[in-house]
Design brief:
Elements lengths: L5 H12 L3 E5 L5 H6 L13 E2 L3 H8 L3 H7 L4 H15 L3 E7 L7 E4 L5 E4 L3 E8 L2 E8 L5 H19 L1
Parallel strand pairs: 1-2, 1-3
Antiparallel strand pairs: 3-6, 4-5, 6-7
Length: 167
């Protein structure tokens, strides 16, 4: 059984490729680069990372189009994709990852979109974006019944596990 921490594996894979990583985070609030800098060789791979908690910050620092937020909700795979791509391109990194979600303890949203659709996004919903060498993928996870910090930790673990698989 390999007990190497997941962040070590991610850093090792980035170093092996000569790649760098940057993060645009909302609900995880800086937990991702904090985990990466736990690794001694983090300085070889970490690029600029930002906490984009407000919509304005997502637009300014992660390149999210305001229309994307309006048309899909700030907690959406569309916004997560733009956050990951936008931060990676702005930072000049080959890899970017993003989180946007409702960690709780209250929150969630019901929104009527411009096209008339109504969407419900429950508390504990987190959308993820991954930009790897020009390709973007997204996914959503629902962390029901977890506390705010448990959602944040679970989302951070998920990003690192997914990056380990994707790299």
């Amino acid at each position: 059984m390999n007990n190497t921490p997941i962040e070590n594996k991610v850093v090792e894979k980035l170093i092996a490729r000569g790649w760098h990583i940057s993060f645009a985070e909302s609900c995880t609030g800086g937990m991702l680069p904090a985990r990466i800098v736990n690794v001694a060789d983090a300085s070889k791979v970490i690029g600029e990372s930002v906490v984009t908690y407000s919509n304005e910050a997502k637009i300014k620092y992660a390149g999210v189009d305001p229309a994307t937020i309006e048309n899909y909700n700030v907690v959406s795979e569309e916004v997560a994709a733009e956050m990951a791509r936008g931060r990676a391109l702005a930072a000049g990194t080959e890899v970017g990852a993003s989180t946007t979600g409702y960690a709780g303890p209250s929150g969630g949203a019901t929104q009527t979109l411009p096209d008339g659709r109504t969407i419900d996004i429950p508390m504990g919903t987190v959308c993820f974006g991954f930009y790897i060498n020009g390709e973007v993928t997204t996914c959503t996870r629902h962390y029901e019944g977890l506390s705010r910090n448990e959602v944040r930790t679970a989302a951070t673990d998920f990003v690192l596990e997914r990056l380990n698989e994707m790299l």
